[in-house]
Specification:
The protein has 214 residues and is an alpha/beta fold. It is built from 8 helices and 8 strands. The protein has a 6-stranded parallel sheet with strand order 5-4-3-6-7-8. The radius of gyration is 17 Å and the shape is globular.
Length: 214
């Protein structure tokens, strides 16, 4: 690590960031109904499973996010506009809540089922830091960094990674364990993250290797 003259430590390697005492793994929206919509989701499930097992074996905290739909009576203008765009509807009256709390589509895919000692954060927004207590929980546990895998880069992973920085957390993107619905949009998102330089970009092998000695 490097240290500022005020004594602030800054990790300089992936292995230093991947200290289970300072990092949590965030599995982003690996839900039944989302994976059904994304080409190549099976590969992302498999790679995320490898990442998840490595994090668990190292004793790292694990959090899952789920995108949630509210009942129609609780869907306001923003939620309806988003649902109309996703569902390609011309009228808010034609919108269907896809991800109601107890719906099968809302559940995490069985291959990645959360354990009893792992957190699940339901959200209405794209960023995992909005409309959830994720940031509070991380700070409360003394966590300084997140690693992220899941679906989809261009929809929710990019804003989560960028908002991690705004909330004082470093973010490690496990790129080949992050799925996407649109390749061009995904490439733009990754280009933006690389340009900003705040996130650490790695792959499954790099992440698991960084945890391998623990």
């Amino acid at each position: 690590m490097i240290r500022s003259r005020e004594g602030i430590e800054i990790p300089t390697s992936l292995a230093e960031w991947c200290d289970p005492a300072r990092m949590a793994l965030v599995v982003y929206d690996m839900q039944v109904g989302i994976c059904r919509q994304v080409a190549g989701a099976a590969e992302i499930v498999e790679r995320t499973g490898i990442v998840l097992e490595a994090a668990r074996s190292a004793g790292m905290r694990v959090a899952f996010t789920r995108h949630l739909s509210l009942p129609l009576e609780w869907m306001g203008a923003t939620q309806l506009r988003t649902a109309m765009a996703w569902q390609r509807r011309d009228s808010p009256d034609a919108v269907e809540p896809w991800f109601l709390r107890d719906a099968e589509a809302t559940q995490i895919v069985p291959e990645l089922a959360p354990r009893a000692d792992e957190a699940v954060f339901d959200k209405l927004t794209m960023s995992a830091f909005d409309s959830t207590s994720l940031g509070f929980a991380l700070r409360d546990c003394g966590v300084r960094a997140i690693a992220i895998a899941g679906i989809a880069v261009e929809i929710g992973i990019e804003p989560t990674v960028r908002q991690a920085t705004d909330n004082g957390f470093a973010a490690v993107v496990i790129e080949d364990a992050c799925g996407f619905g649109n390749k061009e949009a995904r490439d733009r998102s990754m280009a933006t993250l690389r340009f900003l330089g705040e996130a650490v970009i790695t792959d499954v092998a790099g992440f698991c290797g960084a945890l391998g000695g623990r």
